[in-house]
């Protein structure tokens, strides 16, 4: 995905808040103290991350990577960026056997001290399943999800965020949540692709139940996500997203979904997006679907 017109300079009327977000996304965290053996001003990079980061970037490519990281932070498409967010999204999911669901999620990201991020997701679900005995539909709050992340490595061309996720059994109805407390690690990476002027993003997350209602099924699954994040001019972005999920409670059965997000920066740091998706296999497993469509708005704010 090549960028179109993205090299145009930003207008002078850009808000101070946008500039603050861009500056924070660029300088909030560097990769450690200067290396005495390196040229003046360079940073010593951890050996592991240095090996997997892009190699032999030209000065022009480094500048482009830095600029695109700023855009990704402003648009809210970089999972390694330490940037505040208020987001509201709603999606419709078409499920097997004539069932369907609507999920509305309020998300708040709170950055702290440049390298730490706390995320809160509160979903509201409505499900319709004509095959369920008794009540065929349910609606109400689902499980509250809390994520804590630390950006362990950050350069314009490569960044790594390490975190932990927990969910609480706050669902109003048994069919709207796990009924369990869950915990698990999470990892996010963002790597600049010089040839495509885009970022390759990877997400890995594991969740397992650690308590809750003993009559409810245990939780144990691994989710891996690959994304290609591209930018088109000063206001548009796209994300190609593929999610592979392995459910260990169900004999390690797997599912895969693919989604495409198209979004636009509306004004300042307020943006909107639409994200249709389709299930590739394992459509009857938890977390999968036949097809879906999601719309949302997000407001990004500066770090503190």
What does this structure look like?
The protein has a 12-stranded antiparallel β-barrel with strand order 1-2-3-5-6-7-8-9-10-11-12-13. 12% of the residues lie in helices and 52% in strands. Helix 1 packs across helix 3 (59-75). It has 304 residues and is mainly beta. The chain is globular and about 65 Å long.
Observed structural traits:
mainly beta, Porin, twelve-stranded antiparallel beta barrel, 12% helix, disordered N terminus
Per-chain topology:
Layout: H1 16-27, H2 47-52, H3 59-75, E1 84-94, E2 100-112, E3 116-128, E4 137-141, E5 144-155, E6 158-168, E7 180-193, E8 198-212, E9 220-232, E10 236-247, E11 253-267, E12 270-281, E13 291-301
Antiparallel strand pairs: 1-2, 1-13, 2-3, 3-4, 3-5, 5-6, 6-7, 7-8, 8-9, 9-10, 10-11, 11-12, 12-13
């Amino acid at each position: 995905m090549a960028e179109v017109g993205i090299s145009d300079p930003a207008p002078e009327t850009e808000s101070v808040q946008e500039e603050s977000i861009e500056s924070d996304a660029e300088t909030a965290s560097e990769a450690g103290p200067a290396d005495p053996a390196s040229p003046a001003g360079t940073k010593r990079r951890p050996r592991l991350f240095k090996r997997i980061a892009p190699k032999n970037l030209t000065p022009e490519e480094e500048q482009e990577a830095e600029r695109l990281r700023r855009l990704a932070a402003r648009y809210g498409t970089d999972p390694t960026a330490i940037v505040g967010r208020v987001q509201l999204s709603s999606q419709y999911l078409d499920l097997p056997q004539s069932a369907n669901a609507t999920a509305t999620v309020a998300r708040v990201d709170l950055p702290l001290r440049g390298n730490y991020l706390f995320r809160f997701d509160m979903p509201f679900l409505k499900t319709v399943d004509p095959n369920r005995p008794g009540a065929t539909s349910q609606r109400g709050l689902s499980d509250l999800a809390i994520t804590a992340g630390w950006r362990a490595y950050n350069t314009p061309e490569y960044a790594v965020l390490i975190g932990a996720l927990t969910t609480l059994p706050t669902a109003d109805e048994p069919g709207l949540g796990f009924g369990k407390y869950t915990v698990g690690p999470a990892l996010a990476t963002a790597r600049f692709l010089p040839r495509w002027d885009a970022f390759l993003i990877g997400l890995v997350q594991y969740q397992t139940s650690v308590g809750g209602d003993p009559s409810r099924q245990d939780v144990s699954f691994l989710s891996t996500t690959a994304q290609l994040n591209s930018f088109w001019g000063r206001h548009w972005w796209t994300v190609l997203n593929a999610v592979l999920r392995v459910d260990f409670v169900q004999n390690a059965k797997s599912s895969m979904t693919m989604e495409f997000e198209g979004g636009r920066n509306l004004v300042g740091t307020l943006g909107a997006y639409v994200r249709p998706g389709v299930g590739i296999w394992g459509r009857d497993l938890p977390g999968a679907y036949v097809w879906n469509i999601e719309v949302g708005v997000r407001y990004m704010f500066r770090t503190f």
